[in-house]
Structures are given as C-alpha cells and as structure tokens.
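Hello Y.,

Per our agreement to keep a running log of every chain we model this quarter, I'm adding this entry. I've kept the format consistent with earlier entries: sequence first, then predicted structure.
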Amino acid sequence: MPFDDHQPEQLPARSDGFPTLSVVVPAFNEAGILEACLESLLAMDDPAEEIIVVDNSSTDDSAAIAASFPTVRVLSETRQGITYARTTGFDAARGELIARIDADSRVTRNWATLIRQRLAPGSGLDAVGGGAAIAELSPAAFFWFSMWYRGFRWWHQRSIGVRPMIYGFNGAMRTSAWRQARELVAMDDQQVSEDLDLTIALLRSGHRLAFEPRLLVKAHLFRSIDREKLERYYRTDSLTLARHCYGNPKRRAALEAEASAQ
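Predicted structure for the entry above:
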C-alpha cells in the first residue's frame, strides 16, 4: 500500500505545551460495544483532540453509531482487515500523537493525560504500550485483574523475543514515528500479527518504546480465548518474526522446518 506523501493538516497546538492526540478505533460489526468505547473516550479528564472511527465495511450499525457522536470523525475502509483499517486511520490522524484502541476497549479517565505525559517533548520515548483489565470481571468504573494481563504480556514477549510490545488494544506513538516505520509494515492479516508487525517496524526504524502499567484500558479479553484464534495468532506471530528476521530464532526455525516438510 503506497504512502501518500501529502500529510493531513496538523491540529492546532495546545497552549500547555503537551502534544495533541488523535485516537483511532478500527471497527468491524461492533455495534454492541462501540458506543460504550466512545463514551469512555469522551469522558476523560482531558479528552483527545481527535477521535477517528474507521468503519471496516461493517454490516451492522457501527458506522451510524459512530456518526451519532458529533465530535467523532468517521472514515470508511472497504478493504477487509485490521491492517487496512488501522493504516487508514493512522494516515488520516492530525494529532502529534496517535493512539489506538479496539472497539471493545474502555479507557480510564486519565488515559490521554498519561499518554501526553509519557510522550511529551523531551521524554526520549517514541511509543508507549499500556495494560489491560478484564472487562468481563470489572463492573462499572472498576479496572480489575490487570495482573493477569501482565502475566500474559511477560509470557508472550518471552515467546516471541520482542519487547516491549505495543498491543493494538492500548498503545500510542508519535505521528512522526508512524510515518517513519510505515514502509516496514505489512497489509495482510493472514500473514502477520498486526501489532507485532508494527512493534518490530518501530524498533527496526530506531524508535524507543516503553511499557506503562498505569496506562489502562478495560478490554473484553475472554472473547479472544478461543483455541482456533490462539493457534492462528501463534502462527501469524511466527510468520511476522520470519518476515522481519527479528525476535526468537527458534520460532522462525520451527516455521521454516514446517514449510520444508510440506
């Protein structure tokens, strides 16, 4: 997917010196949960200057729900896949920072404030990934069981040999970092794990990443605990490592052995 060198007009600078923030939410048939996601973004103590929902050819009311929020910008991406939807949103973002969450994520009230602080000018950081509470076990305003996610994060990073991961359901980066890393990312959901691919692209292009445990969202993690999905994620993780020749060499070698045996 070629990159259009024409960059969108940047949002007006903030008077306090902190960077402006665009939040991108890809959505495919998320009508049942998108409203709660957008309400949490708008309820923050210092909301993002721009919220972009990328409708990825939904067949339900996702686009209409997003459009019902006057301050939400709705874009359409007809090519199916999270890589396409994410890229369309990131390329259109006008803030100095780009954050990404999933449609089932709900942010804490200080979420945008933490992003601006961690990625403030002079911080030395280019991207930051946050933690996750389990929505199914966290009623109302509570963000519980985030330690479960910390355990998964430790295991996953150890398995792939890449850290710190910037997971798609809760991460942010400088817009300049995205533009520099963009040529290294892939556009095929079947051949890459989208967030691993982007993380490696950021690392390969010389950017500094960090994990911030205070940066929390509440996500519906149980809907991802499915054997078929987990097997697919494991395989696309290995394909992504092989694509970049990066990370755990044992995972890449196992993939190569599997291919040669076929």
